[in-house]
Please model this.
Amino acid sequence: MKYAFYLGCLIPARELGYEASVRKVLPALGVELVEMEGTNCCAPFSIQSLDHATWLALAARNLCIAEEMGLDVLTLCNDCYESLLMVNTILKENPAAKKQVNKILSEVSKEYKGTTEVKHMVDVLYDDVGVDRIKNAISEPFTGLKVATQPGCHLTKPKRIHFEAIRGFEALDELVRATGAEPVYYDRKEMCCGGPLRGINDELARQVSRLKLIEMKNAGVECIVTVCPFCFVQLDLGQLEVKRYFKEEYNLPVLHFAELLRMAMGMKLEDWEIRSHRIPLSQVLKDRL
Amino acid sequence: MLEQPAVLVIGGGISGIQASLDLASRGIKVYLVEKSPSIGGRMAQLDKTFPTMDCSMCILAPKMIDCSHHPNVQMLTYSEVKEVKGSVGNFVVKVLKKPRYVDETKCTGCGICAEHCPAEVPNEFDENLGMRKAIYMPFPQAVPRVMTVDKENCLECGLCEKVCDLKAVDLGQQPEEVELNVGAIIVATGFDVFDSSEIPVYGYGRYKDVITALELERLLCASGPTGGHLIRPSDGKIPKSIAFIHCVGSRDRREWIGNAYCSSICCKYAVKDAVLAREHVPDARISLFYIDLRAFGRGFQEFVNRAKTEYGIRFVRSNPGEVIENPKTKSLTLWFEDTATRRIESLNFDLVVLCPALIPRGGAKELAKTLGIEVDKYGFFKPHDAIANPVDTTVPGIFASGYCLGPKTGDIPDSIMQGSATAARVAEVLAGGG
Amino acid sequence: MSSLKPDFMHEVANTQRGKGVLICIQCGRCSSSCPVARLTTEHNPRRLMEMIILGLRSEVLPTQLPWYCLSCFTCLDRCPQGGDVGETMFAIRNLAAREGNVPDGVVTQARSLFDTGRVVNPTRMALVKREKLGMGKGQSTGVEDIRKILKRTAFDKIIGRR
Model:
């Protein structure tokens, strides 16, 4: 299992912890990550909003790099996943769009051929590695830990594109269960974390993440697990902001799924990684750190 | 007259019953095959029906009794059609009589066996809101009035056999295959209800107080699991606020739901149920949430107007987005945008009633294959010609009536009309016509 | 009363992401599901579709309505018509961007994209940390290629970079 490893912008800039855990966990499960060089921003929703052709061309350029490597793309971020997957789908189904994009890409000596697939880490873990293999790699399960999984919007929506890719939330929940933890159902699980409004209207962004935190707390979870760096920031740093502006405390530490998996596989997080979590992990995972 | 004058009617709901009676009363022999232990179908589950607001069972029961008494009608209940060979004028049908482990000729339906039976399971007739025993009669007015043993849930203790004075229980009964020669077939298998948990945001299956309209009918019905008391399934309290959500699964073009059609009767029964709910709980706050209000036909728009003015029902043109249970108060919060006021609101309700899409009966597709008739993309039986031959199926000699033909067939009077129409067509065919 | 643009609906429908507006029946399920619509009256997907259908072009393009969208696609997934409400949001934003209405936060990201090929870049401290932790320099960025693409699509004009 070899993949072109697409990191995107946010993770190398802000979330080295996520990257570090992924680099330890995936190879241990048989997934080889091949570095993609010379990539560009995937063109997330903010850039897509400015111009359609730009979006198609920027995302397609990354897909071309993967095509040249002869590999499928593995992403760690829901926004990168959404952008690259949607463009890949559009260009495969719409010859006119493909022509339009290749005209633009010819200026940078690239041609989109449609020979690659785009996968999220959750796709790869569920479909390619498989829950059984993961279970076998677990040496220190999180038995009894009640977890709220935050699949994020673009892992499961738009449903008509993701219909084949991931079956609702089940895949992520199964993966969490494989680590021994218990994914607890909570209302509004499908709801956005509010991340996209950061920088545009922080007040609204906070209110949206608060709507989620309320339901998570109501369901009695002990911690939150994310698979997208935006969701992570919104629910982790966001909890501090909610505390400041709404005077409400939720005390729900947030973990990247890769970190949860890493610890369940018997590896310990390093100090700098632990400190990068704004809501202290020690509240819930004291004996695991 | 052709040499095989008998007729097979598959489906013992109101449509099949009407067809059977029409044929029987003109001297034609009818075999009425019904999958469940009793005839009656969906109409038996309803409380009161629009427009007369008569008790549904009161209209249905005399027809059911007629079927059981009529010398020209032979009922095969708890039976299924397994094979159909031949063609119009001469069909050979194999029917499997499932063993009910009770001798129909001896059982009087007194129910003493059920009183002693130790096994209790949810009652499908009550939409699983109430319980029945493993030896049971699905509802008090069942026809035939005999008990049936649900072998899957039977504990095989033999108590029923012991306590029956008439020795009607026969736990060694075997399935029986019956071969029928008939000149024509009428299929009237009716509808099932869409599984509303496929639209998870409404909370069906998660919250006990989110129910379907059919479940509501059972709660309103005096012979239902609560004796006709409209109460919340979760705590038995009387709901002081009730919401109806229309189009749950209907008019839904999304691929994973796929029922793009309008189920036609839901707006009618929703308004009717709202009025009935008002009669049960005079001071309740009752709201209907719809996309379009389809109030066609005789007297219906007037009924809607009265519902607004005389019965104080609030009509909100809005398709709600979310139903969430408030963990402290245990009431249900509904989020919606009132498209008339253009304001997004959330309101609390004690009870939420969903109007689910009506889909073909389970087993209809297989039955269509057995009969060789065509179905449309939703699984409803296709008429030979939607305009000119609406009750003929695509196979000569096989006719269909009622909701199994699809939602364009409206409500109970329509199903009765179509039952009579198929009977007339069959009589034509048997008399040598086409 | 400002002037209505009766062909606004078709202008939107003819963009690559806007055709969903043609089948909207104004049922309100999208707005009833939208997390942001609950929190502010400035954003409402049903109202957006309504304004497009009615031709209220100049009432929609200069506002914050399209920019408060989370692009979470909840509206799109819930629409019983299979209408692409969320996609139409993107179409409106494309049109709004052409007319100069882009929030500052987005302009900042877009300019960073033009200058560095990424919407957000690691700080120098982050780069030092990477080296220290043995995570290497990180993946390289094809900045030159990106600028060529952005110039080709006239993106630079939208965000005020030449």
Summary: Chain C touches chain B at residues 25-34, 37-38, 41, 44, 46-47, 77-82 (CB under 8 Å). Chain C has eleven helices and no strands. The longest helix of chain C spans residues 85-98.
